[in-house]
Amino acid sequence: MKTLVVGGAGYIGSVVVRLLLAEGHAVTILDDLSTGHSDSVPDGVELVVGDISTAGDVLRGNGFDAVLHFAAKSLVGESVVRPSLYWHTNVIGSRALLDAITEHEVPRLVFSSTAATYGEPDVVPITEDTPTRPTNTYGATKLAVDMMISNECAATPLAAVSLRYFNVAGAAWGAGERHTTETHLIPIALDAADGRRDKLDIYGDDWPTPDGTAVRDYVHVADLARAHVLALTAADPGEHLICNLGNGNGFSVREVVSCVEDVTGLPLPVAAAPRRAGDPARLVASADRAKARLGWEPEHDLRRMVADAWEFTRSR
Ligand code: UDP
């Protein structure tokens, strides 16, 4: 397929681009490089540096078969203090992209959605029918885009898939996590083990979980990438398919700490810190629908995520 990857110079986009190329798809990237990196773009791939609102210029007359949409602001804490930035970039930007997709009759869309659309569910594992009650601006903007996509699919032949990621980690095919502002547990823990940070703050050790630290569902970025390729052909025209992507297993912060110490062979200094605002105790996905509709099952475990992230960190 001829694909346009919007936000393809970022962490997840750049891994997906590598898999698309390996599977024989043609790739053009549109990225404004606000958080992505031009050196994450593989040789031979056309990079159009531009805002998402200019997607129509790229799509016009070029016969694209699919758009994969990764372009978004994604820092939960920042989203709460800067809602206007998040609504403009994530929602108004996606509206412009959807209009361009409809105008230029691109038949397929795969969108990066998030577990943050569910907020703090009463029941785990979380299915796609779990009520969506986002607790922060980031989750609200992603949910708004999911709703726009549903509306678009009801009115046009667009075949769309929203993939709701749980906690993405690891590295693959030379691409990994390089955020200027890092808030994620595994890269922070690796930096603390490596001495690039003095310690890891554990946000809360009195959660109602077996060891008192919060539980999350980690999924390897290579598994996630495979789900995107499968999603290209999973929806019917006029359908908006929503699928959770997680392992279906939860790991606590302390379990991640042990895994990091084990993989690196280094002691990881930790300190107890207050709970982070908006953090739920436990988020674990049911990935049954992804299995049924995409034929997807995660293949990599937590140890492999940590090992691959560690190798990527040390290579930089
Ligand atoms: N966490 C932590 N210390 C950190 C970063 C994260 O204790 O420096 C915890 C966080 O409270 C959550 C889990 O690790 O329970 C995963 O957080 P992350 O930011 O990686 O992803 P999130 O679940 O917030 O999307």
Automatic annotation (TrEMBL):
The keyword NAD applies. Gene3D superfamilies: NAD(P)-binding Rossmann-like Domain, UDP-galactose 4-epimerase, domain 1. It is an enzyme of class 5 (isomerase). Its EC number is 5.1.3.2. It comes from the Bacteria. It catalyses: UDP-alpha-D-glucose = UDP-alpha-D-galactose. GO terms for biological process: galactose catabolic process via UDP-galactose, Leloir pathway. Signal peptide: none annotated. Keywords: Carbohydrate metabolism, Isomerase, NAD. Pathway: Carbohydrate metabolism; galactose metabolism. Its cofactor is NAD(+). GO terms for molecular function: UDP-glucose 4-epimerase activity. InterPro entries: Epimerase_deHydtase, NAD(P)-bd_dom_sf, UDP_G4E. Residues 4-240 form the NAD-dependent epimerase/dehydratase domain. Homodimer. Belongs to the NAD(P)-dependent epimerase/dehydratase family. This is UDP-glucose 4-epimerase. It comes from Nakamurella alba.
